[in-house]
Amino acid sequence: MSTPISVDVPTTFVESYGRQGASARAWLDALPGLAADLLDRWTLCPDGPTAHGMAALVLPVIRADGTPAALRLRQPTEDDAGVALGLRTWNGDGVVHLLDHDPDSGAMLLERLDASRTLSAVPDDDVAMRTLAELAARLVAVPAPPGLRHLAQIAADMLDRAPHAVPALRDPAERRLVRTCASAVAELIDEPGDRLLHWDLHYDNVLAADREPWLVIDPEPLAGDPGFELWPALDSRWEAVVATGDATRTLLRRFDLLTEVLDLDRRRAAGWTLARVLQNALWDIEDGRSTLEPAQVTLAEALLGR
Description:
It is a single chain. By secondary structure, this protein is of the alpha+beta class. Helix content is 47%, strand content 15%. It has helices spanning 11-17, 22-41, 83-90, 125-140, 151-165, 172-188, 230-234, 238-243, 247-262, 266-286, 294-305; strands at 45-46, 51-52, 56-62, 68-74, 98-102, 107-111, 114-118, 195-197, 206-208, 214-216, 222-224. Helix 4 packs parallel to helix 9, helix 5 (151-165) crosses helix 10 and helix 10 (266-286) packs antiparallel against helix 11 (294-305).
């Protein structure tokens, strides 16, 4: 019988993720055992230090055939429920390959990419944005499979919540802005689309790779209109957008590039991007905030002022 491999969970991850509550702490307590079990079951050898983001732990590993891979562990949530289905549907076309999946724990064995190089490292913003847009175009070209959350449901839920949430904003101008975003969603809700969306496609979710120069990671798959994909890309490297001295001009240039490459109707894309502003505003209000993030206001005003 082989000796189980000990897996160390970084203290920084335990401290940050443990603040999510009792279920998160229970998952963290079970995490070393889960990781050790998967290493044994999938015949994997650790191959470097463990990394983590806000919600997931990633162990670089070597498979039995000698190929490098990455073991991704994340507490199962609604946001993560469709990841394996989405990755299988894309089948590596512009996105990381799914090599194996444990449905019970949500653990995934993924193609190894270069986590030290994200699209944020590309200094020319037009080059970086075009790269992201070309990857996004490949992803949304795929019809969404049955079983995923649908934008129609998410949009309807936002419209139900908005009237009760908006009064929490202190600034009357921000309240008007959020109501305008809700009106844009109401105009589009009858045609929510059927494409396979990533939902969180920004510069830091595009990594350098061997199979292609760049590949997408960490989708939260959703069925819907490709216009709903644009906000995370527009918000990428926000400090650099502000540093240009003309954030509106930069955002509109990014928006035009994205809609050109994805071949989107700009009016519809603007409406679904305002839906993302509404979604973010509702999340912030539910977290107890009474003002909107400046990036949200700047983008919404840029699109509405065009």
